[in-house]
Write a structure and sequence with these properties.
The chain is about 30% helix and about 20% strand. With about 190 residues, the chain is of the alpha/beta class. It has one domain: Survival protein SurE-like phosphatase/nucleotidase (Stationary-phase Survival Protein Sure Homolog, Chain: A, 3-Layer(aba) Sandwich), CATH 3.40.1210. The strands form 2 sheets. The chain has a 5-stranded mixed sheet, with helices on both faces. The chain has a two-stranded antiparallel ribbon with strand order 5-6. α1 packs parallel to α2. The protein is globular. The N and C termini lie far apart (about 45 Å). GO terms for molecular function: metal ion binding; nucleotidase activity. Keywords: Hydrolase, Metal-binding. InterPro entries: SurE (IPR030048), SurE-like_Pase/nucleotidase (IPR002828), SurE-like_sf (IPR036523). This is Survival protein SurE-like phosphatase/nucleotidase domain-containing protein.
Length: about 190
């Protein structure tokens, strides 16, 4: 998806006001953001200074889906982005709960849940499919204010994203440890 967004932005369009990636089938929350094609495509717009929306619908492949809720919510948010009610150059990860439009509790700005990461494991009886299992500490109750919490409460989660992977908390300590006695040692 990221490559397709690059081709579209750099070769097919002279100017782009907004990049919309999705509507993805399945939520993209927590640590899943790092492996999401939907988020990756929106990221390419963000890198180019374009308001970018990654939109996902919290469903499973087995779910029979009525797209009306997702389409309605996506159209509202896209309209606000196009009319510049949403700040320009925003990068939003939007997750819509799998409920009827009348059951939506509202829209809430969230942070990404610190969920466990996933690992693929071989399917024993069917080599054409892989299963995912969650690793790390399970979170039986999502933290209030997170994307996972919002979906569990029937809210649309809107998580503003920024991309800077630098861990500033560790910079001073690492600098001290790695440069200690540097002049006295051979490389």
């Amino acid at each position: 998806p990221g490559d397709a967004a690059i081709v579209g932005l750099d070769h097919l369009s002279k100017s782009t006001d907004i990049l919309i990636s999705g509507i993805n089938q399945g939520a993209n929350i927590g640590f899943d953001l790092s492996i999401s094609g939907t988020v990756g495509a929106a990221l390419q717009g963000y890198f180019r200074g374009i308001t970018s929306l990654a939109i996902s619908y919290a469903m499973t492949p087995q779910t029979e889906v009525d797209w009306e809720t997702a389409e309605h919510i996506a159209s509202i948010i896209c309209g606000k982005a196009l009319s510049e009610e949403i700040p320009k150059k925003s990068f939003l990860n939007i997750n819509i709960p799998l409920v009827a439009i009348g059951e939506i509790a509202g829209l809430v700005v969230t942070r990404a849940e610190e969920t466990g990461y996933f690992q693929l494991e071989d399917a024993k009886n069917n080599t054409s499919k892989l299963k995912r299992k969650t690793l790390g500490e399970p979170k039986p109750i999502p933290q209030t204010g997170t994307d996972l919490w919002a979906l569990s409460q029937k809210y649309v989660s809107i998580c503003p994203i920024q991309i800077n992977l630098t861990d500033y908390r560790k910079m001073d300590a690492l600098g001290k440890v790695l440069n200690e006695n540097w002049k006295e040692k051979e490389i």
